[in-house]
Amino acid sequence: MPTILRIEGYRFFFFSNEHLPEHMHVENGDKYARIELGTLKVTDSYNLSSKELKKLLKIVESNHTELQRSWDDYFTE
After folding, report:
1. Which terminus of the chain has fewer CB atoms gathered within 10 Å of its CB, N or C?
2. How many Cα atoms within 13 Å fall on the side-chain side of residue 49?
3. Whole-number Å distance between alpha carbons of 72 and 57
């Protein structure tokens, strides 16, 4: 379960046996979201306010290159 990024207490990661579409899991305590990398669509979330979700989407967008590269490197080896 590689952790790709830690920002503002949020951990961005994926599982070693992931599936498409490419996405990141994000957690902070009991807060959780799953965000698709290609569309920035939130496909699952709980205990997050809409303000927090917007913040997470901005973080994913601004770090998209690193997140996508990490996914690609891990799953194409």
Report:
1. C
2. 3
3. 20
Q: Which helix (H) or strand (E) element contains residue 50? A: helix 50-62
CB 61 within 8 A of CB 40: yes
Instruction: Report in angstroms the alpha-carbon separations of 13 from 19, 41, 57.
Output: 13, 16, 14
As a whole number of angstroms, the distance between CA 70 and CA 61 comes to 14
pLDDT in tens, 17-58: 999 999 999 999 999 999 999 999 999 999 999 999 999 999
What distance in Å separates the CA atoms of residue 4 and residue 46, rounded to the nearest whole number? 21
